[in-house]
Known about the structure:
Layout: E1 2-10, E2 16-23, H1 26-35, E3 38-45, H2 52-58, H3 62-77, H4 82-92, H5 96-110, H6 115-119, H7 128-140, H8 143-199, H9 206-220, H10 222-240, H11 243-255, H12 260-280, H13 285-295, H14 299-313, H15 318-323, H16 331-342, H17 345-401
Antiparallel strand pairs: 1-2, 1-3
Helix pairs in contact: 3-4, 3-8, 4-5, 7-8, 8-9, 8-12, 8-17, 11-12, 12-13, 12-17, 13-14, 16-17
Amino acid sequence: MRKFDYQAKDGSTNKIVKATVQAESENAAAKLLIAQGFTPLDIKEVDEDGTFIGRLKGRITTKDKIVFTRQLATLIGAGLPLSQSMHTVLEQTPNKRLQGVIEDIVASIEGGKSLTESFSKHPEVFDKVFLALISAGEASGTLDDSLRRVAAQQEKDAATMGKIKGALTYPIIVLVVIFAVMGFMLLTVVPQVEKLYDDLNKPLPWLTQGMVSMADFMITYWWLVIIILVVGIYFLRQYLRTASGIRAMDIFKLNVPLFGGMFRKLYMARLSRTGQTLLSTGVAMLDMLRITSDAVNNTVIADSVNRAAEKVKGGKALSESLKAEDYILPLVPQMIKIGEQSGKIDEMMGKAAQVYEDELDEEIKTISTAIEPVLMVVLAVVAGGMVGAILFPIYSLVNTIS
């Protein structure tokens, strides 16, 4: 049983009542309140574990959604009624939060709503691509095929993002190590060198003096450093949530040295794969472009797709509309043009997606191989510079004494 906080109007007194009720789902909670003579105004599930760890454990991962989608497709394809299929998937779902979502969807379906309407109540779990494919599958009677397509789409996207995250993990770890080494040496070793020079009344070399000044500042004003870091990170995160911040980050991803080409291919693969999946399920061209512009998850590319959609609405071919956009790589409009001539746009978009996915794999491997020696050189320069700044003064003192 789940807990729900509710706000309802008491039918006998006309007063607004706030309390908690236990029920299997939000729908069941509403029915229970109506049976007791209340008119529900607002019902919200109580998060009994609101801690960070609790939210992390309870979050719905891409893997959870893929397993759920594939199981539902298999059961519907086997001929089971929709409601029974949902109940069966519910029993096999280990994720508590996803269980709650499925329970709500089941209650909605049994209440007479369509599957698309029921899924659309949870946009934080099921995105526009998922909903569009479900809607097309319901309309065409090929719901099991649509579910398999959306699961395949999610798997490919998750695999690609996993490879990119893997490529970025190593340089991040090395940079953390570099800063840790710098901090350790500044706070422990450098002050000892300064003390040694003070005892001998000798002036410090300029490089060592710079490190000493930096160490003194960090030791004396450590609280100020922490405040600056915390405030800086907070305001940066807030800025990146604004429209201008999101756009700035999207432009940065497309143009950042070394990784810019990788991100461009990622977005082209995502655009082509999503377009192929939607068109092959029967989604109309303009609807496909509208949904795809959201699915690429980059405002710059989305603007390009939306501009192309406006041209298509005016009667221009999609290939020509996309060709004029700066951030759309040439292969996409070229393959679409072949598809327009052969009547197989979805198939050609799928081939374009495959090309970019393969190229992305190769580029990730190349970057991973090339970035290791670059980072090693950076680490050697930083560590060597600090060691030199510490050892050279000591050697100078030794030579002076001898």
